[in-house]
Amino acid sequence: MLAAVLQTAAAQSTATPAPHQEWGLVNVACASLRAEPRHGAELETQATIGTPILVDTVKSGEWKMVTMPDGYRAWMHLSAFTPISQSRFDNWRKSPRVIVVHPYGGTVISDTIAQAWQTAVTDATIGAIFSGSISPRSRYTRVTLPDGRSGYMHTNKLMDFEQWSQEPMNMDSIINCARSMTGVTYLWGGTTPKALDCSGLTQVCYRHSGTLLPRNASAQAKSGNLVDINTPASWQRGDLLFFGPDPDTTRITHVGIYIGNNCYIHSSGMVMTSSTDPDSPIHLPRKVLAVRRIDTSYKRIENHQWYF
Fold this sequence. Notes:
- By secondary structure, the chain is an alpha+beta fold.
- It has three domains: 9-85, SH3 Domains (SH3 type barrels, Roll), CATH 2.30.30; 95-165, SH3 type barrels (Roll), CATH 2.30.30; 171-293, Alpha-Beta Complex (endopeptidase fold (from Nostoc punctiforme)).
- The chain has helices at residues 9-13, 86-94, 161-165, 171-180, 198-208, 217-220, and strands at residues 21-26, 31-34, 43-47, 52-60, 63-67, 73-77, 81-84, 97-100, 106-109, 120-124, 129-131, 140-144, 150-154, 158-160, 191-192, 195-196, 225-227, 240-243, 254-260, 263-268, 270-275, 288-293.
- The strands form six sheets. It has a seven-stranded antiparallel beta sheet with strand order 3-2-6-5-4-1-7.
- A hairpin with a 2-residue loop joins strand 15 and strand 16.
- Helix 4 crosses helix 5.
- The longest helix is centred in the middle third of the chain and has 11 residues, at 198-208.
- The chain is globular.
- It starts with 8 loop residues before the first helix and ends in a 15-residue tail after the last strand.
């Protein structure tokens, strides 16, 4: 990836933009961020509906440089987000919101009764955040996008955002999220179940449990606590396993989620389960270069001031 991973002070500790920045909220299901300000440039990362971003005044045509909540910077097209004022952003951070928790998301529809007039407002992937409140025993929840569009989504795909953020990190939830994406196509820069790369898979699965990992495998390999690679018996479910492009390298380019019994889930061509055991039929000849364990308190979204 060409864009630098910049863990700015704003991304870590403040909800006030610098003088040359403004707030924005992503308003499309899957916003693509590019290495250069053009659609044909390398895909760096992606963002879901309701993701807060810092927007720079740096502009090129219909593109602006933005900073993601994880500190990653890249170019985003103007159509993918809605600029908002500081006061509106403060209100959004305090307002009732819901988050999509179903692995494959769903569709926001315009009407829940008149089938003949029912149209799609937008699709939405796991992690999408909408303004709205869940009514008890209601089949549908009315949701509003950052650009003002509104519609209805099946309540069973949603959870109250504040309640969700306070749920403790759960390894079963992380691994189940990864398993649910088995077979999803690999895409360099992808971070949604539509298609994703290796670190996109780990990031989206940990984010599903309220933890914000860095974007790339090389940065994730510096996160959490180091685990001894020479004692696989000490590896725990949910640990991140890091690999290189060939057995002789020390450069980390790949990551997967350990699920026990020498197996891990990763995105390589597609999301699949492989084994570190040479005698296993699903073994891949890749050397484990590092193992990291993410602490339950590591960069929780509930503590991120862009969200609350």
